[in-house]
Amino acid sequence: MSAMQDLLAILDLERLEHNLFRGRSPQVGWQRVFGGQVIGQALVAAQRTVDAARHVHSLHCYFMRPGDPAVPIIYEVDRIRDGGSFTTRRVVAIQHGHAIFSLSASFQRDEPGLDHQIPMPQNVPPADNLRTQREFLEEFGDRVPENIRRYWARERPIEVRPVMVEHYTSRDKLPPRQDVWIRTTGPVPDERPLQAAVLAYLSDMTLLDTSTFAHGRSGFDPDIQMASLDHAMWFHRPHKLDGWLLYTQDSPSAQGARGFSRGSLYGLDGTLVASVAQEGLVRMRTK
Q1: Which string of b and e fits 3-18 if b means at least 16 CB within 10 Å?
Q2: How far apart are CA 261 and CA 278, in angstroms?
Q3: Are residues 95 and 137 both part of a single domain?
Q4: Domain stop point among 109, 143, 168
Q5: Which one of 44, 90, 107, 172 is most buried, by most CB atoms within 10 A?
């Protein structure tokens, strides 16, 4: 299977019981499960206990332990409330007898109301004018650390094209913001719950790294320990995942061995699709 087909397969959880689901991880040699995968799978588990007419509008997560890619993840859903307007679910992901992750999500029927959005940033180079991952590796070659080369050379379900690549090749202190074009490498079925799960998956990509720019660092630096601690996402407007999304990000603060980043996901037509916030461990390793 292609990487995109594998992603869709791992988001198709196995139902074990009324509120119990099992998910697997792709076997690609990672030492721990990608955080976006756990978010996406937990959201799928929650969605499968919710009326189909109600759609996720927000989720809030905590990462507690690194996931083990070699064994399945069990997702236990708590049906907290089914109200007149909103539905609330809590999901706990379990491995080796311990909780590794929790998610709370809220669902609502579509209804009319006040509607505005912050405009999409202007003067951002189009994705097609930027280097592909292969071109990036060919151009920068030996200037790119080996672990970055391996990461960018691997087939993945999501293609990422950063507008700015200086932080990969230098230790210059840069403003803590970036614009990243991002898209799936294959078609996503026109099913709103699945599209929300894929959007949740890709929302975990590149975001925490933004908090290292002001310090001349990158998440790939061997002397930095990085891991997501929490993740929040708000789904504003449904949008097909059939093209590029602009993921504009900034990091207002880093302190206490934690970095905080925010992101907005826009469609090519300027639609604000979702907003994201994340705090993560950003710890300098001591020898």
Answers
A1: bbebbbebbebeeeee
A2: 5
A3: no
A4: 109
A5: 107
CB atoms within 10 A of CB 122: 6
CATH code where residue 230 lies: 3.10.129.10
- Mutual orientation of helices 146-153 and 133-140 as an angle, nearest 10°? 150
The tens digit of pLDDT for each residue in 203-225 reads 999 999 999 999 988 777 778 88
Point out which residues pair with 246 in neighbouring strands: 181, 266
Whole-structure pTM value: 0.93
218 lies in which domain range? Answer: 128-287
Same domain, 77 and 217: no
> Could you give the number of structural domains in the chain?
2
Strand order in the sheet with 158-162: 14-17, 20-23, 73-82, 86-95, 98-109, 54-63, 224-235, 272-284, 258-267, 245-255, 177-184, 158-162
The DSSP output letter for 70 is T
pLDDT of 186 strictly over 70: yes
Dihedral, CA of residue 116, residue 188, residue 38 and residue 103, to nearest 10: 40
Q: Which residues are catalytic?
A: 204, 228, 278
Residue 138 belongs to a domain: yes
Residue 119 lies in a domain: no
Q: What is the pLDDT of residues 121-153, one digit of tens each?
A: 999 999 999 988 777 777 766 666 666 666 666
Q: Which of 42, 46, 56 shows the shortest CA–CA distance to 99?
A: 42
Cβ-based neighbours of 191, under 8 Å, separated by 6 or more:
none
Are 99 and 139 in the same domain?
no
Helices (H), ranges, 94-241? 133-140, 146-153, 166-169, 192-202
Residues 217 and 149 occupy one common structural domain: yes
Looking at the chain, the whole-number percentage of residues with pLDDT higher than 90 is: 79
